[in-house]
Amino acid sequence: MATAPVSPSLSELRDRLTDLMPHDHRRLRRRIEGAHKIRDQEALRGVVAEISADITAAHERVTRRRERLPEITYPEELPVTARREDLMTAIRDNQVVIVAGETGSGKTTQLPKMCLELGRGILGSIGHTQPRRLAARTVAERVAAELDTEVGGAVGYQVRFTERAGEDTLVKQMTDGILLAEIQRDRLLRRYDTLIIDEAHERSLNIDFILGYVKQILPKRPDLKVIITSATIDPERFSRHFDDAPIVEVSGRTYPVEVRYRPLVDDSDELEDVERDQITAIGDAVDELCAEGPGDILVFLSGEREIRDTAEALEQRKPARTEVLPLYARLSSAEQQRVFQRHSTRRIVLATNVAETSLTVPGIKYVIDPGTARISRYSYRTRVQRLPIEAISQASANQRKGRCGRESEGICIRLYSERDFLDRQEFTDPEILRTNLASVILRMTSLGLGDVASFPFVEPPDRRQITDGVNLLHELGALEQPTKGGKQDNQRLTRIGSKLAQLPIDPRLARMIVEAETNGCVHETMVIAAGLSIQDPRERPAEHQQAADQQHARFANKQSDFLAYLNLWQYLREQRGELSGSRFRRMCREEYLNYLRVREWQDLYGQLRQMVNSLDISINDQPADEDRIHQSLLAGLLSHIGLKDTERKSGANRRSTSEYLGARGAKFAIFPGSALFKKQPQWVMAAELVETSKLWARTVAKVEPAWIERLAGHLVKRHYSEPHWEKDKGAVMAYERVTLYGVPLVSGRKVNYGRIEPELCRELFIRHALVEGDWDTRHEFFHTNRRLLAEVEELEQRARRRDIVVDDDTLHDFYDQRVGAEVVSARHFDTWWKKVRRERPDLLTFPRSLLFNETSAGVTDTDYPDFWQQGRHRLRLSYQFEPGSDADGVTVHVPLAVLNQLGPGGFDWQIPGLREELVTSLLKTLPKQWRREFVPVPDHAKAVLARLRPHEEPLLEALSNELRRMTGVTVPPEAWDPQRVPDHLRMTFRVVDGDGDGGEERVLAEGKDLEELAERLRPRLRAEISAAAETIERHGLREWDFGKLPGTFERQRNGQVVKAYPALVDEGDSVGIRAFDTAAEQREQQRRGARRLVLLNLPSPAKFLRRQLTNSAKLVFGRSPHGDQERLFEDCIACAADVLIEQAGGVPSDQEAFDRVVQRVRAGLNETSAHVVSAVERILTIQQRVESEVEGTRSLSADAAEDIRTQLSNLVYPGFVTDAGWWRLADLRRYLSAVSYRLQKVAHHPARDRDLMDRIRSVERRYQEMLDSVGEGEPVGERLWSVGWMIEELRVSYFAQELGTPRSISEKRIHREMDKLQP
């Protein structure tokens, strides 16, 4: 029995596909083609029935859409209505039409209606894009109202997080970002039969991408109509892009505008140019316009700071009944709406370029245009988005001018010349030429659109921009590393890149979320990423900045601005759960939080959560570790890391704001609004780097370099330096330096160098281990060879020659020809030699004849310079070859005037021509135990000199360090004996009076010791300094009437710069100003002189102190070493003054500081002096008691008694109170009490007392030698002075342990401290 044919047939179904919506047509056609493959008639019959039903439903959908077409009317007053027929004809007859018209022409609201009238929107929706969400919503509402339909029906809209459009919507308003997102699902945009790209003149990145993409698909969609609307800014460019598409121009509703040019620099004056600053010029323009009559004024400014400064100035000079209002994007919605509210007074609106095209401010009759704006621009050098202030284009200037011709005739004052206007570029660069293209490249790669360089953009981006975008994606790990010679159009997404492309946020932020999955902190990272994607919800109104800062400070984290987002998020979540909707909104307003941005933040987080779930990324439900959160964030910010520039903070030129070294040599600073601004960590990452007045890092956090190195493994560069042989490890080690975009992550990390450069390691192993013998091994050949070398070296000693033994290169070549190529370390050698020695045991043993050879060396005549450069001083050199004479060798001619500015450092290096001989002699002076390690000495001297960098450190220190690196032998500093080198190798210093550059000079003194010469000639040097500083030296001063006292004084004298250190000096009943030759003397004299001047300006508290004395105190003071009570009081008062001066900020250097110190000392001198006197009374009481005990202790030896009396005289003497200082007085009592304890113990342990005394005297002798070395008149340094106190503490620890010491003390510790003080 025959099977009945399937009805309807597949061909009949295909015929029914006409007049369907494109996406239905394509979907059903593919189903019909698939049905051809079905052989089972019953199954085919079922499929055909389903397809037939779907075709019927699709036809019904078209019918329903036709029936929903509303009645269309056009407002007669709109200019676009007059061109309706022309526009509809152009749209009907062309696939692409350009509509150019100014704001107010009606093109935005009427073009969708014209398309409906032409029958568009039935077989596909009319997609109408807007640059901003607000515009998409308001245009949809306006068009729906004119068509008498509800929003969401025939007319709908879709913006981020909100969609009010259905399946039967005819006209769909949307942001350009929504259309871009739909491209990923609908490659040919079959959902639409018409696209209207509005405000194309803005040339945003999204708009340019849409225009390029649409051009690509037009040949595949001949049914698609494209209408591009633009202000009258270069519509011809759009026409050329779409193969000379027709342009229909529609005039706007405008009135004439008079342009007046009022440049900041007025050159009309014949005598001189008159220059004004911008704020003054704006004020003058306001005055001029106010005189023209009523009407609001719109002033364009480049940023918020300029708006605030200008507003402050205008408030002081504005006419009566005038209101000054700011307008910029970061203002809250309520503050922005004030501009649009009805008002009866004149308004001056200060706005950024947001008011050029984005917003139309009503009532504007006048415009003031300074001609500048902050324009976002990507920097190729720093790879950051900058916001520099630039001159606007002619097109932007004309847009600004047009703001005042909307409602009546207007006036536009330009604060620049007409010539300046004509010289400016015609149009503003589109965003694609000013931004990073990473998002575009990522999107294009995910869509398979090929190379961005060949994409049909209206204006193709610069190749550098494309490269930067690709590099950023490589940084994020989104693109596969290109093969050598590979092309960018072959780029493929990695697994990470595929995930990034599916997240609707900046690639950097998306990378953070992907990394967060590994770290178990996806929730926290999404909260932060969503917060960084929107405008900051924390508002800071200009008039409530302090209150807003206090509210927002609750969420701050001292280590991270990112965590402030988490804290704020948690707070909002808690409040939202406790408060009603209206109370929550009121709370946001009161706490300076923008409710709409909070909602946007929450919505974006929800959207991210949905997308993350679709990517199978698990979201944590437990709080995550903060370090893991920051590591996740760091994955997206690897080129936004920074290392604090510590070098910049040192020295006298210290500046307040720390700078960080960023990627590719960029220098940035933490933004002052950051929680990390006051206490700045060593390493930071930043969410963004924005250049305004300088390069600022916004939203920063502390990071660790180890995190960076781990995450940037595919980006870091590893540099290796100083490969060297290490005997202990038996291998060549090197210092690794790891950098990321030039920022050093790791410096000086020691690593095994064998795997990095095996050839060099083999070379170093042979040279150091085998040739130089720097190796601990039991191999027999090695010890045999060392013995042979020692014998030959001994022969050299006998022959007093240095040309017998072969050089190291000969020995190296011997080993190089025999040792296996794979040997790079001791471990490798052991493995190799274990196999080879079985067959050739004598392979590496030296033949005796190998060790004999001759060598020669020489120097160039450039090794003997005429001058020696020491700092800024150029000193003449002279040479003598007179063995035995004092000046044999090199002589440095030192002018007397610069003697105090020179130190011995650097002269130890000698001139280049004698340096090798000097190093050779120095090596020869080493004790035998060290010297034998560097034989042959000349070769070692030559070798070490080749590696040294002269003058970077003292010669002996450099030699020790380099010899250690070369040989592994450490030469202690005390092993060197430079006094034993021949005299001609030690420089002679000749101090001269007169011109040191070749003129007449008189020799004052000469010798080998520069410091000894300086001490010997100090009186003459002081006279020289006094002569140079006679203009500042004064005497008999009793008040501070001489201005600020400089720290240094320099004056040219006899062709040399004389440098002096002025200070106040104590003259008894007055003070003077004298110049000293060292800063140390200056500090000491300034302290004494300032104290004297302070006390001269205050009444003496001596009378007050006398009234306070008890009879017992009078008896004690009568036996004081001061001789009488008045001198003791003077000592105590001086001590009290020192304390109060220190509390007032230290020694003053100007009158203001001096007055402040006097005021502080006046307030506390009596009381503090009384405290000091009381403390001194207790000290003297103990001292006098101890003296009596010394006399009464018969078991005390004469030696011990003398030791105690010496100690007492060192502790208590005329002036001891001031010398010790207030903080040491308590210690003095303890030291004196310790003597008493000693006296109690000496009878029982005399031998122990003698032993401890001898040990202390050993320390004291060295300390006294150091005190004696201080030049006459020079102050004893604070650190050397403190050694004396350490010795007193040592006495306490030895003789009176019961009293205890503030810190651990020992002879060894004291000697170590003195070691630091000795050169």
UniProtKB/TrEMBL annotation:
It comes from Actinopolyspora erythraea. The keyword Hydrolase applies. Belongs to the DEAD box helicase family. DEAH subfamily. It comes from the Bacteria. Its EC number is 3.6.4.13. PANTHER family: ATP-DEPENDENT RNA HELICASE (PTHR18934), ATP-DEPENDENT RNA HELICASE DHX37-RELATED (PTHR18934:SF99). InterPro entries: AAA+_ATPase, DEAD-box_helicase_OB_fold, DEAD/DEAH_box_helicase_dom, Helicase-assoc_dom, Helicase_ATP-bd, Helicase_C-like, HrpA_C, P-loop_NTPase. This is RNA helicase. Signal peptide: none annotated. Coiled coil: none annotated. Keywords: ATP-binding, Helicase, Hydrolase, Nucleotide-binding. Residues 281-448 form the Helicase C-terminal domain. The keyword Nucleotide-binding applies. GO terms for molecular function: ATP binding; hydrolase activity; RNA binding; RNA helicase activity. Pfam families: DEAD (PF00270), DUF3418 (PF11898), HA2_C (PF21010), Helicase_C (PF00271), OB_NTP_bind (PF07717).
